[in-house]
Amino acid sequence: MKQLDPIQLDLDGVQLIEASAGTGKTYTIASLYLRLLLEPRAEKPPLSPEQILVVTFTRPATAELRDRIRRRILAASRAFRLGDAGGDVVIAALLVRCQDDVGLALKRLEAAERSMDEAAIFTIHGFCQRMLKYNAFESGEAFDIELMEDDSALKAQAAADFWRLAVYPQEPELAAYLIRVLKSPDALLKQLSTLLNQKQIRVSPAPFNEPDLQDAVRLACEAVLAATKQFKQLIAQDSGQIADVLTDLRVQKASVTRHIKALNAWASQPT
Predict the structure, then answer these.
(1) Secondary element (H or E) of residue 269
(2) Which DSSP symbol is given to 251?
(3) Using CB atoms within 10 A of its CB, is residue 38 exposed (0-12), middle (13-18) or buried (19+)?
(4) What pLDDT, in 10s, does the model give residues 174-193?
(5) DSSP single-letter state for residue 55
(6) pLDDT at 141
(7) pLDDT: which is higher, 201 or 92
């Protein structure tokens, strides 16, 4: 790892720059931008703003970067007109490097000022959307495609739609059970959130369409209710034997009586 010097950094090839907060990342990017506007690379002419791609994460960061680059170009233009870098070491170095043709360098800076509205400074999402539109035929995507930075609203809508399909139409017994276990669409989404970003996960069996989902839930409900009904019948028949087993296990008689009473009361309920 070497100390970064933006005026000496090779403009060809791939360069990885590691920087923590407050170390002058924006200043460095703007400095490299100026160099690309003014310096030829491997016998190629300098670039124009629409040929230099700058990609960052958020819209505020993009707006700040665009403004800082514009102000840096203005500062460089002023320096080349006056012959004074005003203490900016990068612009001072560029003045020296371009001293053989200061007029041409100034023209390039002024042209960059006029074309900054066309500068390729984007968020990652904005750049991807631009490329998809630009290559719509090759990518097979629609011309009006939109990329979402936050899909939480879509996930919440999907959870609410599932809730309406899976919970609302059910018999009271199953609906009450689903609400007790899943609680709410938001709670269900929270339970699934750790799975949604794992691409290797597969749903098995394949996802249901709406009729299949309702049929599957209905059959599950019927199976649960049938098993519960059978279990309650066994309790009604064998509550005495259950009490004897608990007594043999040395459970206190008062406790056995209380629990058997509660069990019989549950077994006698229709739900």
Answers:
(1) none
(2) -
(3) buried
(4) 788 778 888 899 998 888 88
(5) E
(6) 63
(7) 92
Short-list 64, 89, 76, CA closest to 36: 76
Alpha helices in the chain (DSSP H): 25-38, 59-82, 89-97, 102-114, 124-134, 136-139, 152-166, 172-182, 185-196, 210-248, 253-267
Q: By CB neighbour count within 10 A (0-12 exposed, 13-18 middle, 19+ buried), where does 232 fall?
A: middle
Distance of alpha carbon 233 from alpha carbon 246, whole angstroms: 19
For the chain, how far is it from start to end, CA to CA, in angstroms? 71
CA 87, distance to chain mean position in Å, is 42
Q: Per the omega criterion (within 30 degrees of 0), is the bond before 60 cis?
A: no
Per-residue DSSP letters for 77-114? HHHHHHT--TT-HHHHHHHHHTGGGHHHHHHHHHHHHH
Tell me whether strands 120-123 and 53-56 are parallel, antiparallel or unpaired: parallel
69: buried, middle or exposed (CB in 10 Å: 19+, 13-18, 0-12)?
buried
Say yes or no to pLDDT of 10 above 80.
yes
Instruction: Determine the Cα–Cα distance for residues 192 and 155; give it in Å rounded to an integer.
Output: 10
Between CA 47 and CA 34 the distance in angstroms is 10
Q: Is 60 exposed, middle or buried (0-12, 13-18, 19+ CB in 10 A)?
A: exposed
